[in-house]
Design brief:
The structure holds two protein chains of two kinds. Chain A is mainly alpha-helical. Chain A has three helices and three strands, in the order E-E-E-H-H-H. The longest helix of chain A is centred in the first third of the chain and has 37 residues. Chain A is rod-shaped and about 110 Å long. Chain B is mainly α. Chain B has one domain: RNA polymerase sigma factor, region 2, helix turn helix motif (Rna Polymerase Sigma Factor, Chain: A, Orthogonal Bundle). Chains A and B meet through strand 1, strand 2, strand 3 and helix 1 of A and strand 1, helix 2, helix 3, helix 5 and helix 6 of B.
């Protein structure tokens, strides 16, 4: 209640209106738009993360060219490189080859039995052939 | 169709509906919208004086409510919490339009001219629409919704006395302009 120069106004008597009949469907549509944008943003962020990891492995940032004993790769060792295509599959294969390289190097260093070395070489060869199948360059990190 | 009724954000909400809404149940949100759509729209409309802008604000509030409801702790009744969301969003819209600036000239706005024409309570409505936006917001929030000047001062980022002076000055000016106005009639008691 307000006093306007001696006249009293009851603001509680303000009229009440109905919102438009399509308001709820507009809200639902806007909500779906928000959700869609979020999914796209998450997918975008996920893709960037996957590509980043794949790139990191391909250029060998984690232990690139480093033998298990901590000595940087050199001489006859080669470094896995990629032209960047088919990143996910090649990255997985490259990781497997690299792990086998490390195991093989460790086996050679400790003078492991010939059977074990041969088995690791066969496994590595299988991955190398598979890697050839997806079109990436590769190379041994092991001084054989 | 229009009716004359006080603001009613005080009606409660079933705990089960609230729980379902928090889990993202669309039907629960639809139920909440049905319950509060009218009071939310009228609060925004009274402050803005523009039906399209009020609809937009209310839609925005309910879109955000899908996420915001998880932050509702239940310290205050749900209606009071929702009312604050609507009032805040409407004040944001007034700020975005620069209608809260002291130098704002009401003649520059589309407010009041873009509002609906009521069948009932037309005189009170016209009085409200004659106020500049800041005064209108203060009248609606203080006189209709019952917020204190202290709360308004926090909202507007001004002193409590400034909020009081905006209200009294606006009402005095409105009263002055009504003197000799033959339209006075049933709005006054």
């Amino acid at each position: 209640m307000s006093d306007l120069d001696g006249m009293r106004v009851d603001w509680q008597r303000l009229p009440s209106f109905e919102p438009g009949p399509d308001a709820w469907s507009a809200i639902v549509a806007r909500r779906r738009g928000v959700q869609r944008r979020r999914v796209l943003q998450r997918a975008g962020a996920g893709s960037v993360a996957v590509l980043g990891l794949a790139f990191a492995w391909l250029v060998g940032i984690p232990g690139r060219g480093i033998a298990p004993d901590g000595v940087p790769a050199a001489g006859g060792q080669q470094v896995v490189r990629s032209d960047g295509g088919g990143a996910n599959e090649r990255a997985r294969m490259t990781v497997a080859v690299r792990q086998l390289d490390h195991r093989l190097q460790a086996a050679l260093d400790r003078g492991a039995p010939a059977e074990e070395v041969a088995m690791l070489k066969r496994s590595r060869q299988q991955y190398v052939q598979a890697l050839d199948g997806v079109g990436a360059g590769h190379g041994a990190l092991v001084s054989l | 169709m229009t009716t004359v009724s006080p603001s009613d954000f005080h009606t409660g909400i079933e705990a089960s509906v609230l729980l379902r809404a928090r889990r993202g149940d669309g039907e629960a949100f639809a139920s909440i919208y049905q319950q509060y759509r009218r009071v939310a729209f009228n609060l925004a409309l009274r402050m803005l004086g523009d039906a399209a802008a009020a609809e937009d604000v209310v839609q925005d509030v309910f879109v955000r409510l899908f996420d915001a409801i998880r932050g509702f702790r239940g310290d205050a009744p749900f209606g009071a919490w929702l009312r604050r969301l609507v009032a805040n969003s409407t004040l944001d819209e007034l700020r975005r339009r620069r209608w809260l600036d002291d130098r704002f000239d009401p003649a520059d706005s589309t407010a009041a001219s873009a509002g609906p024409t009521p069948e009932l309570g037309a005189e009170v409505w016209q009085l409200l629409m004659r106020l500049p936006p800041k005064a209108r917001a203060v009248v609606v929030l203080h006189e209709v919704e019952g917020y204190t000047h202290k709360e308004l001062a926090e909202w507007f980022g001004l002193s409590e006395s400034y909020s009081k002076s905006v209200l009294s000055r606006s009402l005095r000016r409105l009263g002055g302009s009504l003197n000799g106005d033959a339209e006075a009639g049933s709005a006054y008691v």
